Amino acid sequence: MTAERSLIVAAKEFSDLFTSRRFLLIFALYLIIAIIGMAQGIERYDDALASYNKAMQAADEYRDLQELGAWWLEMPGKPTILYVFSSMTGTTMTLGALLAIAAGFDLVTREKETRSLKTLLAHPVYRDEVIVGKALGGAAALGVVVGLALALITAVLLVLSIVPTAGEVVAIGVIGFASLLYLLAFFALALALSVVTKESGHAVIYGLALFFAIAFLLPTFGTVLGDAVAGDPPQRPEMPVTVDGRPVDEAVWMAYEEECRQHTREMEEYRGRRQVVTDTVNLFSPITSYYAVVWPVADPSGMPPEDAAGQIWRGVAALVVFSSVFFAVAYGKFMRMDIR
């Protein structure tokens, strides 16, 4: 395999996607809804900023009390412009996934249906160069989609004199990177279906069915399976008889308190077993992994930094593994495909 021939195939696929009415239509809808979400996010940011300014003015009036240690007069946190970009994530989860499926479901089936795949392989190009080139072309197109969406939102913010801080720029970059990984996950799924199925219609139907199954059925299945594996939750011990709020027997009450502590430990173990099963099932859901990456970045106050970093890395790893598995399926099947 040579990189030059793979890049030639990638350039062709990239050009075909951006001249496809289907792809451009979904892309336009994606941008329109992203802009609507951006407007709502800017409104939320303005409201939060107005509340912050009022709180700061009130804090200035009572600064003397703050210096004396008045805990109820803590300084409020400044709102972040990530409110604006968090709205983009919802659009990416739905229309972004559909756009990725639209980019990949007929990359191979189209060639089989028009019988151009045999002609393509008659040229001095190897099979691995074809499938890698198609994957690179689709990935580049989705990268342009994410880049344009982020650039458009950032440009509007700068026009409105809303300038992100250095930390917010890094967070925006992480959101963009996670969004691209998320789109690549469903693109790899669609590419694998395009290789496995014989017709484009079947590939798109299977792709949409799997998307809705991953989006709606898989989380429910994870919860049900977690409950089944963890078993029945431990029962809380029965409170002993009291008179006027006081225990009748002190020894019985002490035993009850020990049972309560034991029940708390058992509940923690029960929740842990249940969570392990649920998290394992959710590893097969790019939606859950994408949310696990984006949520700590868009709302950094939601969890401690060390927990957020661990969750982000796990989400990124899950997205990479999901894409790699389905690309490997597409690659292996294409290399052994009987082309007549």
TrEMBL record:
Transmembrane segments: 23-42, 81-108, 136-163, 169-196, 203-225, 312-332
Entry-linked Pfam families: ABC2_membrane_2 (PF12679)
Swiss-Prot/TrEMBL keywords: Membrane, Transmembrane, Transmembrane helix
Gene Ontology CC entries for this record: plasma membrane
Keyword Metal-binding: no
Top-rank lineage group of the source organism: Archaea
GO molecular function ontology, one term from the record: ABC-type transporter activity
Name of the protein: ABC-2 type transport system permease protein
Provenance organism: Methanoculleus bourgensis
